[in-house]
């Protein structure tokens, strides 16, 4: 075989090897995305339900208060009525006082158990946690199930929702769906919603409690970012619809989860932005809402939320039971 023929053969072999390497990389990236999880699209609205009855079973509470914990503050096996996965979980400062104030027949205080994790997609070795997409999807599914299940069995029960951090994103997303008429319960049976450190916060879409920071939620600042396991979904187009006057938001200045400067997190610097976002989840400001003061009386965010929920429950309708 001549030298030119040998060179041509080598070039073809190198080209085939390069194409094979590219195919392997492409397959690895595809598997990375698939295994990390994508956010599912919300189901389309179903047909209107039957008219409400005149009474409901004696076992039904008048109100269901649903709390959705933040990242690393729950597990999917936690007890929804006595959560203990994280003794320092922020929303325990809200749910426990409400449970102590009211009997179970008046309010069912339900803390959604879900994986509540946020893995670092570029960690080597992998950190072993569930991705944000998978965690958020599970939290949304479980919250939807508990709301729709209660409404199916207790159609006159009304609802109060709260969420912190990742839980605030989940609660806010469901509130937006309910307000648009395609949620798991009717909008007129939701007494109120309070979001603490909402990653999709946009000024003007909800009632600001305490400070009114000029920034935006991290998911809004990073709108359009798609890395394995992390989908930044941007603002909630349309806001909270019919629930707009009943949704509150609490955001501490400097908390990058809900008060991100528009140029602090950029899609053009994906790796740096993801690392900043992961750091923001554990930063001191984000973890201090139990001491973050929201009014001149020195009321903290969690104290305000507990008092707000208690007032709604105290004034809620008392449906007849059969």
Automatic annotation (TrEMBL):
Record's keyword terms, sorted: Disulfide bond, Hydrolase, Serine esterase
Keyword Endoplasmic reticulum attached: no
Domain of life: Bacteria
Pfam families: Cutinase (PF01083)
Keyword Disulfide bond: yes
SUPFAM superfamilies (alphabetical): alpha/beta-Hydrolases (SSF53474)
Entry similarity comment: Belongs to the cutinase family.
UniProt protein name: Cutinase family protein
Organism listed in the record: Skermania pinensis
């Amino acid at each position: 075989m001549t030298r030119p023929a040998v060179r041509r053969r080598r070039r073809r072999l190198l080209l085939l090897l390069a194409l094979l390497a590219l195919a392997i990389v492409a397959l690895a990236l595809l598997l990375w995305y698939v295994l990390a999880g994508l956010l599912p699209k919300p189901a389309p609205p179903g047909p209107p339900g039957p008219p409400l009855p005149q009474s409901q079973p004696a076992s039904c509470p008048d109100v269901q208060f649903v709390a959705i914990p933040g990242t690393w503050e729950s597990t999917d096996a936690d007890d929804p009525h006595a959560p203990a996965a994280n003794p320092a979980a922020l929303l325990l400062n809200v749910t426990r006082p409400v449970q102590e104030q009211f009997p179970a027949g008046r309010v069912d205080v339900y803390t959604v158990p879900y994986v509540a994790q946020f893995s670092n997609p570029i960690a080597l070795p992998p950190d072993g946690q569930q991705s944000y997409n998978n965690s958020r999807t599970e939290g949304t599914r479980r919250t939807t199930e508990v709301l729709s299940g209660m409404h199916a069995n207790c159609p006159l029960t009304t609802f109060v929702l709260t969420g912190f951090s990742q839980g605030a994103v989940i609660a806010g997303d469901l509130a937006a769906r309910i307000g648009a008429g395609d949620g798991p319960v009717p909008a007129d049976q939701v007494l109120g919603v309070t979001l603490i450190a909402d990653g999709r916060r946009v000024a003007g879409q909800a009632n600001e409690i305490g400070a009114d920071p000029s920034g935006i939620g991290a998911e809004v600042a990073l709108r359009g970012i798609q890395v394995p396991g992390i989908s930044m979904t941007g603002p909630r187009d349309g806001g909270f619809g019919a629930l707009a006057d009943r949704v509150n938001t609490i955001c501490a200045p400097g908390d990058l989860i809900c008060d991100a400067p528009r140029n602090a997190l950029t899609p053009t610097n994906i790796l740096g932005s993801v690392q900043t976002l992961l750091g923001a989840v554990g930063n001191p400001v984000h973890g201090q809402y139990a001491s973050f003061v929201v009014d001149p009386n020195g009321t903290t965010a969690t104290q305000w939320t507990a008092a707000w929920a208690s007032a709604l429950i105290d004034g809620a309708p008392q449906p007849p039971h059969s």
